[in-house]
Amino acid sequence: MNADDCVDISATINPSTASEYAINYTCIESCLDNANPEMNLISMDCGYSERAAVWFKIELDDLAEEIYIYAQAENWQPIWTLYQGDSCDNLTALNCMNNISPESSNTDITPYLSINNVIPNASTYYLIVSSDRVLSDQDNHAFELCISSTIKPIICSSFDNNSCVDSTQAFQLVDREFSGSLDGPFSPGEQVTICIDYLYDSTNSEADWMMALIPSFGSNWDVQSFEPESAGLTGEWFENGADCAPLIQENVNNLCTYVNADGILTLCNALCEVCPCELGMEEGDPLPSGWYWVTPGGNAECENDCTPGEGWGLGSTTFALNFCIELRINEAPDYNDPYGLQISLNALSDGVAGCWEDPVGECLNFKPALSPIWELEECMENALDDFTITEFLDCQGDGLVCSGELITILAGNFPDHASIFWELEDTNGQNIIVENSAILSQNIYLEGEVDLTVSAHFNCQSLSVDTTFIVEAPGQLDTVYLSQCSGELIGIDPIDYIGYEADFDPFEPIKSEVDTMFEILFISEDSCGCRSIQAVGLEVFVEQQVFDTLYVDSEMFELVYQDTLLTSLGEHIIFDEDGGENGCGINYFVLVELSTSTQNLNQLSSKVYPNPTTNILFLQLENVRLKNIQLLNATGEQKLFEISNSQIDLSQLPTGIYFLVLEFRSGEKAFHKFIKL
C-alpha cells in the first residue's frame, strides 16, 4: 500500500465518510525499512531529502469535507506532508507535519494529529511519511498510520474552527516558585500560576448556554494538590463519582473518557487530540470532574435535582472567563512524556451536559483549548552525587543528645529548590518525619539508638543517606512515697515540672473505696530540653468501718459507746477522726435494739458467700424469716440491687467494701461485711 517512490504506489487508502459527523479512523501498519530519502520535492521538503520516506495515496468519497491524520511509532516521531493532486507529477503541498521544526509546521494541534480541509472537487491526495531523525539499525522502523474523513462539524468555539493551536494564546504562565524564565524550562516540585482567558461562543445554535468547563492535566502535574475552588469561578466544582455526579445528556461522537495513571476520569476530544479511548459517548455516561454552572431548567425533561444534567446552564450563548489556577509539578515527573505539562479545557453546553433541548440543534462539538506544551528542565543525573549529612549540633555540645534536646542537622551540597525528606526512628519504633527542608532543627523526643534517613530528590535523581546517633532516656529521680486518706488532695508541689503522667488528676481530691497504691510521673525539663522524671508513689487509705449491735432491756436507757452517749433505739453513726490503723478514722455503724425473751440473736443463723465475690453473692438463712434487706457502701450510702432465689446480683456495683443489713420478722438485725472485686 505504501511505496518508496510516489509513482510506485500500488494500492489506495479509501476512508469512508459518515453522513453525520463522526471520526472513524482507518489504520494501517507500515515501516521505513529499505526506504530511501525523497530527493524530488521542490516545496515543503521538511527533511525528507535527508531521511527515509514512504508514499501513500488517499481517495476520498463525495461526503468528505475534512481529513484527520495521525501517525505514531515506538521510539521516534513520524512526520508527514499531505499533498493534493491528480498524479505524482502535479502535487500541491497542504501542510508539513514536522515535529522538530514547529515554525515550519502548519499543524493545528499536538504533534500526533493534523486536520486538513478537503479542497472542493478534489478527491485524490498523496501523503509522504518520514521520521524526525535518522533511524539506526537498533530502532524499530515500524509505524501506524491512521486516516479519517468527516463532514465538517458545527463547531461552537472561541477560536478559529480550523485551528486548535490558536487556543494556546488563552493560557499565560504568570508566576513560578523558582527563578527562571516564565517560558521555562521548569523544575520538578515547582509551583506555577497559570491565568486563562476563555471565551465561550455557541451562537451557531439557537440558545445553547454555557454549562461546564472540564480541565484535563498532563501526567507531570500534581493533580492531588490542585484546589479547584481557588480559581474563584462562579461555577460549582462537581466531582466525578460523588453524589450528584455529572452525566452526559446527548450522544457525542468526538468525545471519550478514560482513567489516567492517577486514577482520574479524563475527557479526550478527538477534534484536537489523539485519544487513548474508543470514540463516542452515549447519553448517561459519566463526565469527569469540572466546573459546572447550573440554573433551574424549564423543559418538561428537566427534573432540577442536584445533578447538572437536570438543569440549564449560565444563561448566555457567549461568556468570557478570566481566572488563574495554581499547579505544582510532580516531584518525580516522567521525562519521556513530552506532553506531561500540557493542560486542555473542554467546554460543554447545557444541551450536552444539561437538560436543554435546542430547537435548532445542540452544540455537540467544542474544540478544546490546549495550553502550550511547557518543558521540564534538563535531567541532571549527577546533581546529588556529593550530597552528605553533617554531624548533628546538640545543645550542650557533648555529642550526646538528651531526649527532648534541641538538635540541628544540616544537609550538605544540597541543590536549590530540591526536595528533602527526613525520617528519624528509635529502637522503640517511635519516629519523626520532616519534609522539604535542608536543615532539620527541632526537639527530638526519642530514646536509644536513632536511625536517621535523609532522602533527597532533585530533577531526575533520587538518593538516600543514613546515619545513627544516641538519644539518652529521661533521667529518673528517686521515688517519693506519700500516703493520704481517700477524698484528700495530694500533698506534693513538684518544682519546674512541664507535665505529668497519671491515670487521674493529681490536683483534684483522690477518692477510693478500697486501700489503693497509685503512681504519678512528674516531668521536668532543662534549658536544652533534656528531661528528668520524678516518680511519686501514693498510697490511698479509706476509713475503717465497724458494725455493731447493742441490746438494751428498756426503751429508757443511757449507754456510752466509743465515748458517745446513746439514749435512743435505732441506728447511730459515729465518726472517730483520730482512730484507725492508718490515721484516716473509723466509721462506727451502731444498732441499738430491745432484747427479747423468746428468741436470742445467737439462735438466728444467716451467712453470705463467697467473700470476696465478683458478681453474685449467695444468702443462706436458718431458723429465721427475712423482713427487709439493705445494701450499703463503705460510706453508708444505700445501693440498689436485685435478689432472686437467695442470689444477690452485684454486677452493676463498682469494686469496693459493702455491708448487707438483714432485718428479720422477729425484729432483730444482722450485718454482713463483704468485698466486691
Shape: elongated
**Overall pLDDT level:** 83
Tell me the major beta sheet: 5 strands, antiparallel
Largest sheet strand order: 12-15-11-17-18
Number of helices: 0
Radius of gyration: 44 Å
Approximately how much helix is present in the residues? under 10%
Q: Please mark out the parts with pLDDT under 50 across 5 or more consecutive residues, or reply none.
A: 99-111, 597-603
Number of domain modules: 5
Number of strands: 43
Separation, N- and C-terminal Cα atoms = 95 Å
Could you tell me the strand content as a percent range?
35-45%
Class from helix and strand fractions = mainly beta
Please give a structural write-up:
- The protein is mostly beta strands.
- It folds into five domains: 6-150, Jelly Rolls; 165-370, no CATH class; 388-471, Immunoglobulins (Immunoglobulin-like), CATH 2.60.40.10; 475-541, Immunoglobulins (Immunoglobulin-like, Sandwich); 555-676, Immunoglobulin-like (Sandwich).
- Helices cover 0% and strands 41% of the residues.
- The strands form twelve sheets. It has a five-stranded antiparallel beta sheet with strand order 12-15-11-17-18, with no helix packed on it. The protein has a five-stranded mixed beta sheet with strand order 21-27-26-23-24, with no helix packed on it. The protein has a four-stranded antiparallel beta sheet with strand order 1-8-3-6, with no helix packed on it.
- A hairpin with a 5-residue loop joins strand 13 (255-259) and strand 14.
- The chain is elongated and about 145 Å long.
- The model is unreliable at 99-111 and 597-603 (pLDDT under 50).
